Predict the structure.
Amino acid sequence: MPQTLRPGFAILAAALLLVPPALAFQSPLSDEAIRDAYFLGQRNDEATANLFLSYLRTLPPPKSGPYISEVEFYTPYSQLVERSRLHSVGYSAQQATKDYRATSDTIYVRIRIDFTSTYGAFELYRSGRLLDAPKRAAETQRPDYYRDFRAGITQKDQWIEPLSIQIVPAGWQRSGHVPFSDFFFAPFLSPASFYSGSSNGRGSSHGCAYCFIGWDVWLQYDASDVRSDDATVEVLTTDGQHIAVLFDLSHLR
């Protein structure tokens, strides 16, 4: 290669390193990303399902204590795919773009916490049917998210506090992607949510201790606080568990 061309190639290579990968997390979304999300949602096929699964992590149960069974990440891109999927009739790419531009970018993290025989009320259930509650309920300490857990995102060992925490009682056992849209939390459709007690604006964390078998905990973040890099969802429990789930946002849109 001629000596005079080398500086030009060096500048080009450096510039390419500054361009984010096409399939990396980005905020705000480009026009191309918005259209990609719209059409992927409209397809509503195996490719759509596989996208959602790439944001989901399932975990093995602990020997004792609460079971952190699932962690799911919702980027602005995946939220837009979900919105398009849920609007299968009469929803255009132009309307999808308009809807996206009308909102600010937000990230959500869903953490599934299942009760077990050593934490919560799972021992009160058999084959999905509620057994009699203890005669002296005061002897059984009710599970309380705010007392028993701390959860958040870390990047480069820096803790990022969520803007809000919403706790939704789960009334049945299930696994897999939980549909989400910015106009409703799908888990609120659970019958158990009608027995959750007063939330005081923070979501219900203890309510009726014998009406549900776990929680879906939703953490909300400003997307501008999160970089396109490794992001770790961490959950710490009072019984000594430290759950760390890695999401590589340089490869997740």
Helices lie at 6-18, 31-43, 46-53, 76-86, 93-101, 145-148. The first helix runs from residue 6 to 18.
